[in-house]
C-alpha cells in the first residue's frame, strides 16, 4: 500500500498498475495460497527505485520465513528485536536510529481484541494465540465451560468468538522514502495482512484522512491511522452483544467474562501508552530543510489533535469497560444473593422439621432423668434439678455480662472491678432512671 504526495492510496508496488504479494512456500502440507512471486523477485522489488511521488509505503508481512526476514532486515536496516518481539508477542514501543533532520525508526508491538462473527465461526477455523502463534488452536475445540484463560479465544453464548490478535509495526521515517512494515501472526480464519490492507483502502477512501494527508507531509499519520483502525475494532468488540450476556441464568460464565474484562483493561492501557509514545516522538525528518516552518506547525497541530482524539476514544472505552465490569459484578452479587436466599429457605425447612420432633425430644429427655419422681430408687429430685439448673444459668449469665465491655448493664468504659459488681450497682441505676421518668416537667 502506497500513499502518494497528494494523499491518495495506491496498491502498485511493481509500477505496472498491479498489486503484488508474496506468500512463501512452507511445505507440502501447508494451507497457503500459490506463490505469486519468488523470493528473488521479491528482493528485486524491494531494491527497485520507488516512484518520486510516493510519500510512504506499507508492507504487511504474513507467514514470515527466514529469507523474507533477512531481505526486510537488510533493506530497511531493521533490528532483530522487532521480529523476535513480534513472533513471541512481546509488547514494546521504542525509537532507534534517531538522526535529526533525516529520520528514525519507531516500533510498536501490542495485542488487541478481535471478534469473529457467528457465520465465520461456523466454519472449521483457527485463531492466533499469544502462547503459540505458530500453532493456533481450533475454535471448535474450545471447552464449553469457558475456563478462565484470557489468552484463549472466548466463545460467547451468541456464537461469536473473541480472541487476541497482534499489532506489530515498524516504521522507517525519512524525508522522502518512509516505510511501514507490519507483522501478522498466522491465522487460517482471516488473513490479518489482507484485513489490514483492506482497512487501509477504506482509510484511503475516507475524506477525513485524505484531508489530513493533503495538509501534512508527515508519514506518521499513516501509522496513527492504523492505530485508529484497531481501536475502532476494539470499540465494536465492546459495544457488540457478546459482552452483554449478563443474565443470572448464565452465572457460571460471569467470572470468565470478568477475567477477560480485566485483561482488556491492560490492553487498553497499552494502547494508551502507544498513542502517547507517538505523540511524544515527533518525526525528526520534519526538521529537514525540505519543509517550511508553516508546514511543521500545521503537521504538529494535526498530530496533537489526532492523538488527543484517539486518547479520548481510548478513555471512553476504558469507562465503558468499567461500566461492563460493574454490571457483571452486580449480576454476580445478585446471583450470590439468590443462592443465599435458597440456602436460607432450605435451613428454614430444616428448622421446621426440627420443631416437629422437638416435643418428642423434650419428653424423652424428661423421662430419661434420674429423679425419684420418675425413676424410683434414685437420690435426685426435680427440685434439686431445678435449683442446680437455675444457679448454673445465673452464673453463666453473670460471667458473660461481666466480660462484655459494651452493654446496658454497666457504663461504657467501666473497669473490670466495676463490671464484676454489676448486680449490686444495677438496681441503683434502674431506680435513678425511674425517678427521672416520674419527675414532673415544669412548664417554662
TrEMBL record:
Molecular function (Gene Ontology), one example: cobalt ion binding
Region of interest called Disordered, as start-end residue ranges on this chain: 1-34, 121-145
Composition bias, Low complexity: 122-138
Protein localization: Cell membrane
Basic and acidic residues compositional bias, start-end: 1-15
Short name of one Pfam family: CorA
Keywords: Coiled coil, Membrane, Transmembrane, Transmembrane helix
Cellular component, GO annotation: plasma membrane
Membrane association type: Multi-pass membrane protein
Annotated TM spans: 350-370, 382-401
Coiled-coil boundaries: 300-334
Protein name: Magnesium transporter
Species assigned in the record: Rhizopogon vesiculosus
Classification lineage: Eukaryota, Fungi, Dikarya, Basidiomycota, Agaricomycotina
Amino acid at each position: 500500500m502506497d500513499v502518494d504526495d497528494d494523499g491518495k492510496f495506491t496498491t502498485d508496488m511493481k509500477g505496472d498498475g498491479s498489486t503484488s504479494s508474496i506468500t512463501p512456500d512452507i511445505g507440502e502440507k501447508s494451507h497457503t495460497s500459490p506463490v505469486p512471486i519468488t523470493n528473488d523477485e521479491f528482493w528485486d522489488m524491494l531494491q527497485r527505485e520507488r516512484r518520486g511521488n510516493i510519500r510512504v509505503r506499507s508492507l504487511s508481512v504474513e507467514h514470515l520465513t527466514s529469507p523474507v526476514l533477512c531481505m526486510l532486515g537488510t533493506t530497511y536496516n531493521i533490528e532483530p528485536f522487532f521480529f523476535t518481539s513480534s513472533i513471541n508477542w512481546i509488547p514494546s514501543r521504542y525509537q532507534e536510529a534517531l538522526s535529526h533532520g533525516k529520520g528514525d525508526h519507531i516500533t510498536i508491538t501490542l495485542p488487541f481484541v478481535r471478534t469473529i462473527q457467528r457465520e465465520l465461526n461456523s466454519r472449521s477455523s483457527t485463531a492466533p494465540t499469544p502462547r503459540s502463534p505458530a500453532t493456533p488452536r481450533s475454535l471448535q475445540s474450545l471447552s464449553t465451560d469457558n475456563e478462565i484463560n484470557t489468552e484463549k479465544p472466548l466463545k460467547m453464548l451468541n456464537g461469536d468468538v473473541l480472541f487476541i490478535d497482534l499489532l506489530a509495526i515498524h516504521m522507517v521515517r525519512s524525508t522522502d522514502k518512509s516505510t511501514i512494515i507490519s507483522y501478522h501472526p498466522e491465522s487460517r480464519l482471516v488473513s490479518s495482512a489482507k484485513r489490514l490492507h483492506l482497512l487501509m483502502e477504506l482509510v484511503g477512501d475516507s475524506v477525513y484522512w485524505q484531508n489530513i494527508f493533503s495538509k501534512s507531509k508527515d508519514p506518521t499519520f499513516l501509522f496513527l491511522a492504523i492505530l485508529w483502525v484497531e481501536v475502532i475494532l476494539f470499540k465494536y468488540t465492546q459495544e457488540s452483544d457478546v459482552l452483554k450476556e449478563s443474565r443470572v441464568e448464565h452465572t457460571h460464565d460471569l467470572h470468565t467474562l470478568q477475567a477477560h474484562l480485566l485483561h482488556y483493561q491492560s490492553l487498553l492501557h497499552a494502547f494508551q501508552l502507544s498513542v502517547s509514545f507517538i505523540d511524544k516522538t515527533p518525526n525528526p525528518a520534519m526538521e529537514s530543510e525540505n519543509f517550511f516552518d508553516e508546514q511543521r506547525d500545521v503537521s504538529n497541530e494535526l498530530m496533537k489533535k489526532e492523538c488527543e482524539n484517539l486518547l479520548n476514544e481510548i478513555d471512553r472505552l476504558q469507562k465503558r469497560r468499567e461500566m461492563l465490569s460493574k454490571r457483571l459484578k452486580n449480576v454476580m452479587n445478585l446471583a450470590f444473593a439468590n443462592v443465599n436466599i435458597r440456602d436460607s429457605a432450605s435451613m428454614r425447612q430444616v428448622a421446621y422439621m426440627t420443631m416437629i420432633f422437638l416435643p418428642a425430644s423434650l419428653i424423652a429427655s424428661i423421662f430419661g432423668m434420674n429423679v425419684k419422681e420418675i425413676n424410683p430408687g434414685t437420690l435426685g429430685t426435680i427440685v434439686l434439678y431445678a435449683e442446680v439448673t437455675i444457679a448454673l444459668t445465673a452464673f453463666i449469665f453473670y460471667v458473660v455480662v461481666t466480660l462484655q465491655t459494651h452493654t446496658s448493664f454497666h457504663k461504657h468504659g467501666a473497669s473490670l472491678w466495676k463490671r464484676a459488681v454489676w448486680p449490686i450497682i444495677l438496681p441503683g441505676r434502674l431506680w435513678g432512671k425511674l425517678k427521672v421518668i416520674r419527675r414532673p416537667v415544669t412548664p417554662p
